[in-house]
Design brief:
- The protein is mostly helical.
- Helix content is 63%, strand content 2%.
- It has 42 helices and four strands.
- It has a two-stranded parallel sheet. A two-stranded antiparallel sheet has the order 2-3.
- Helix 25 packs parallel to helix 29, helix 28 packs antiparallel against helix 29 and helix 33 runs parallel beside helix 36.
- The longest helix has 23 residues.
- The two termini are 63 Å apart.
- The N terminus and C terminus are likely disordered.
Length: 772
């Protein structure tokens, strides 16, 4: 495992004192040489022990390991195997004093860099397991003797000048300093945290990004530092941030997105599913002001042209790979290129040779003319572009989920992000391979961290965020598909939804298929064990969420989505709870209030065995399936009030699912379990839907004047379990929490109304129904 960083110099001295020739060395070094000048007496003692003890008394002793006598360092080096690093550091320190030209210092740094880079490369290329067991003595020694602090001092020295114009350091020296610092960060535990604690150094690093020659090394080091920084950096504190970002070319901007992803995302405080709503409410009361991440989002959105350039990056085309061995070549490269630094360094080699063209290229033409082009596999360039797009899509996704969502939505629509992604879908995002079910993996076959997989998942997450409860969701269709929605509404004799009417047709998808239709096509072809099923279902579900649209549902039903979902739940053998939950939620959105969907359900689930298999999946985890249960309960309630509709009454009498839920004993069974599996202390964003579903069941019972029998049944269940009060008291506490959590927060209340499928909002009195 990586070595830890010492806090003081004591460790360096303890290393020295372990020498087997300690007594002989001390005998040689003992002795004092005093000279007197007037009344002043200057101690020029070279005895290491005496000087160390003296430093404790007068406070002017050693501040870095390189201040130790050179002879002592050289002698100890033979036994400690320091490979001359302390002596080189001593020379580096002596040749890097202020106002020096630093040319000699650079020569010493190059020697040190070559030693340290070998260890960093082994860390990058070794198998992850063996890398964790390795030690990196060179980087450890370099840090132990103050090398990290010395390089920081050298880098920041121009900022200490009193001159109006800051003196410029040699670019190669800056690059080597940054590379050595990064090597120390990845090989020696604690160096990164130490650098992150220096706010002045972190902000200074951003100023180095103005130089294209040092940009890559700077960006990589900043990314590593911000990843461990305790407090999120404030982007508004970076000098001339707007000018800095606007000066980036497209490649630099893509790399900068890796840094932005750390500064605009809320810090991970643990698994969100396990972070209770009770704790979140308490945290919100303590910190009601906008978080640093939210402030940073506002800052970055204020930069002119920023979103437009991200859209261009996300949608720019890349050369397609050719050849039958593409997948194997890609996998072989990725096995080695696990670290982004190595990949970017190799790509930089190509771009540096093509720097003659200073104009920004959107099609990588500079790479095409580079002399190194034949040395860089085509698949590697595609991976490089994919990794960029992953970071860009992530930043856009975070901004779409922030407080400035409407502003971001407007810009993404204006800059045609969705049509651009639609044009890339078949050629890059979901390419067709000869080996149809092949998935590129990282270090092992169970790892879903390859660039291709990350790209697909980030793309699906973006679609989910883009469509969720927003009228711009219709941009995922093309003009022909929008006309189809209008025709469905006309045939059903219902008005078109306002969002569809207001959609700007110049901003929708081009081509024969829209993005949603393309997604449905690959979704139905996905193998049973695919890791994409969950995200695909979530993306499609987000298109349906919000106010129920019969036309939207029929559009998807006509494309066989319901049958596909039922196959996955009943017949595919799927056991993943996450995937099943996503399918249950999607099925609920697809079927709610839609009598045609229930008719199709009954046609597919046409045997008692199939229906029992479906019920088994539902009952196996109500946390996963309760949204579907809620949909069925609400739909049944509406259908029962449409007695004059012959088609509805026919389906009501024939549909096994509606008949099952219509029976009171089955509703009570759902209610018992929904109330019993949650309490106020365990409520999370994941399982709070169980509370809302139980409320829906009871509110509908109250509407029909049947609430008392339900409450009596709950009490009888308590006595049967020989635990009086366990259900009703728990439910009462849940209701009181529900009041506090939802009724005073407009956003959550609106979301609750949407997911409750247009139920009227009931305000609970202090005397909750269960008290009656």
């Amino acid at each position: 495992m990586a070595l830890t960083r010492p806090i003081t110099l004591n460790k360096a001295f303890s290393c020295l004192n372990r020498s087997v020739q300690e007594e002989e060395m001390m005998a040689t070094l003992v002795g004092s040489d005093f000279t007197c000048t007037g009344s002043k007496r200057r101690n020029r003692n070279t005895n290491i022990v005496t000087r160390f003890m003296s430093s404790k008394v007068i406070g002017t002793g050693f501040s870095r390991g390189t201040q130790l006598p050179g002879g002592l360092l050289q002698e100890r080096d033979k036994h400690a195997k320091w490979h001359g690093i302390p002596v080189l550091l001593q020379k580096l320190y002596e040749s890097s004093h202020p106002n020096s030209d630093l040319s000699h210092a650079h020569s010493f740094l190059k020697v040190l860099s070559s030693q340290l880079s070998m260890e960093a490369m082994s860390f990058v290329t070794e198998d992850r397991k063996s890398a964790q067991e390795s030690t990196f003595p060179n980087t450890y020694t370099f840090d132990l003797f103050g090398g990290v602090d010395l390089l920081v001092e050298i880098l920041m020295r121009p900022t200490l000048t009193m001159q109006k114009k800051m003196p410029k350091m040699n670019d190669d020296l800056v690059k080597d300093c940054l590379s050595v610092l990064y090597n120390c960060c990845i090989c020696t535990e604690g160096v990164t945290k130490s650098l992150a604690a220096r706010d002045d150094f972190v902000l200074f690093l951003f100023t180095l990004m103005t130089n294209k020659k040092t940009f890559l090394q700077t960006a990589t080091l900043i990314e590593d530092i911000l990843g461990v920084k305790k407090e999120m950096i404030q982007l508004e504190g970076i000098p001339n941030l707007s000018g800095l970002v606007q000066s980036f070319d497209q490649q630099q901007l893509a790399n900068f997105c890796r840094i932005l992803s750390v500064t605009i995302s809320e810090p991970d405080i643990g698994n969100d599913d396990k972070h209770t709503l009770l704790a979140k409410n308490a945290q919100h009361k303590r910190n009601s002001s906008p978080s640093r991440a939210e402030v940073n989002q506002v800052t970055i959105l204020s930069i002119p042209g920023f979103i437009e350039r991200l859209c261009k990056l996300a949608t720019r085309k890349v050369s397609e790979a050719t050849g039958a061995n593409f997948l194997q070549e890609l996998e072989d490269w990725y096995t080695w290129l696990d670290n982004a630094l190595v990949l970017d360094a190799l790509m930089q080699m190509a771009t540096e040779e093509a720097e003659q063209s200073s104009t920004e290229s959107s099609d990588e033409s500079s790479l095409a003319t580079s002399p190194l082009r034949h040395r860089l596999p085509q698949s590697m360039k595609i991976v490089h572009e994919i990794m960029y797009k992953v970071e860009v899509l992530y930043v856009l996704c975070v901004l779409l989920m922030g407080r400035q969502r409407n502003q971001v939505h407007k810009m993404l629509a204006e800059f045609r992000l969705i049509p651009g992604l639609n044009n890339l879908f078949d050629k890059l995002i979901w390419r067709k391979y000869a080996a149809s079910n092949h998935v590129v993996h990282g270090q092992n076959e169970n790892c879903d961290c390859s660039p291709e997989i990350s790209f697909k998942i980030q793309f699906l997450r973006l679609l989910q965020s883009f469509s969720d409860h927003h009228e711009n969701k219709y941009l995922l269709l093309n003009n022909q598909e929008l006309n189809e929605l209008s025709a469905i509404s006309m045939k059903a004799n219902i008005p078109e939804v306002e969002a569809l009417v207001n959609t700007d047709r110049s901003l929708v998808c081009d081509g024969k298929k829209g993005l949603l239709t393309r997604l449905l096509t690959v979704m139905k072809r996905e193998p049973p064990d695919s890791s994409f099923r969950f995200w695909q279902a979530r993306a499609v579900e987000s298109f349906l969420r919000g106010a129920t649209s019969y036309a939207d549902q029929m559009f998807l039903l006509k494309r066989g989505l319901l049958e596909h979902i039922l196959f996955c739940i009943i017949d595919s053998g799927c056991t993943s709870r996450d995937v099943l939950q996503s399918y249950f939620d999607l099925l609920g959105e697809l079927m709610k209030f839609n009598i045609d969907a229930f008719k199709r359900f009954n046609k597919y689930v046409n045997t008692p065995e199939k229906f029992q298999a479906f019920l088994t999946q539902i009952n196996s985890s109500l946390v996963d399936s309760n949204m579907l249960v809620r949909c069925i309960v609400l739909s049944l309630d509406r259908f029962e009030n449409q007695t004059e509709d012959v088609k509805v009454m026919e389906v009501l009498s024939q549909c096994c699912l509606l008949s099952y839920v219509a029976r009171v004993e089955n509703r009570l069974s759902f209610l018992f379990r929904l109330v019993n599996i949650i309490n106020v202390q365990t409520l999370t964003q994941e399982n709070v839907s169980c509370l809302n579903t139980s409320l829906v069941i009871l509110m509908l019972a109250r509407r029909k004047a049947k609430l008392p029998p339900y409450l009596i049944a709950l009490r009888e269940k308590e006595y049967a379990e020989k635990y009086p009060g366990c259900l009703l008291n728990n439910f009462y506490n849940l209701l009181r929490f529900w009041q506090r959590h939802y009724l005073n927060k407009d956003k959550d209340s609106t979301c609750l109304e949407n997911v409750s499928l247009c139920l009227p909002r009931y305000k609970l009195s202090p005397a909750a129904p269960c008290c009656s």
